[in-house]
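Re: your question about Indigoidine synthase A family protein

S., sorry for the slow reply, the queue was backed up all week. Below is exactly what I fed in.
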Amino acid sequence: MAASSSSSSSSALSRLSNIQNHLNPIDSLAKNLVKISPEVSEALSHGHAVVALESTIISHGADYTVFFACVQGMPYPQNFETAKEVEAIVRNNGAVPATIAILEGLPCVGLSTEELERLAKLGSKAQKTARRDIAHVVGIPVFVTGGIGGVHRHGEHTMDISSDLTELGRTPVAVISAGIKSILDIPRTLEYLETHGVCVAAYKTNEFPAFFTETSGSKVPCRVDSPEDYVNMKLKLGSGLVIGVPIPREHAASGRVIESAIQSALREAREKNITGNAETPFLLARVNELTGGLSLASSILSL
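Result:
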């Protein structure tokens, strides 16, 4: 009788689990299609702080730059050491780092040292992917990156807009970054985020940072002066939250130098008819060349 009762209970629990998976497909997806490292899994199950990190820095250089990794960016083992250093910073501040990558077709949240090194050795041979909702799928509320994508300059004509912005409008994850890269149209990017209901804030400043530099000339509607301020902003509205943290002043590149280099790179891109996915890597690499490595140094330090 006890065995029968146990079997019946097990069957009922199984049915309830199936119903729950049907009603909450995200939970089911996370369990079946995403590999979560033991360290990250344990932290999430105990309610400890977990910070999602993208793996682009390992394979493609300082966030978003495909060309830097193989030319002037972070070749192996510099990219590997930088990735480990970023994870160490997260740990030293009381959280568990969860670097995200797709390995052998499986999304992985939290990489081992061996997996980090494997990506580092692959460099730009690794394919870059864009979706940033994997962190949300497994229950990580904070995602850290160097700089977010945005509306490209002259985007009103080309409609070249990063998928980052669309993702932020439908994924309730807080993205912490050094701002929007100044090769992009920052005012239009902020307008686009507002249209999609994404709250934009800046840390200890009233102006959104421009990745390479502390300021962009664009004011933000919200200011965050402490972690407690961030907690109070979590309203469960279904969209993301962007918090810009300015690069330290001592590491910021000269705004005038960077802007001059950007304008030159943009002209060259138009003359060479470089558009679409090829434009951003070209612009970042060219800006780095024209500034004598100043922009790349800022990129690495912004992380």
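Residues 172 and 235 are 10 Å apart (CA to CA). Confidence is low (pLDDT under 50) at residues 1-6, 19-23, 60-73.

Happy to talk it through on Thursday.
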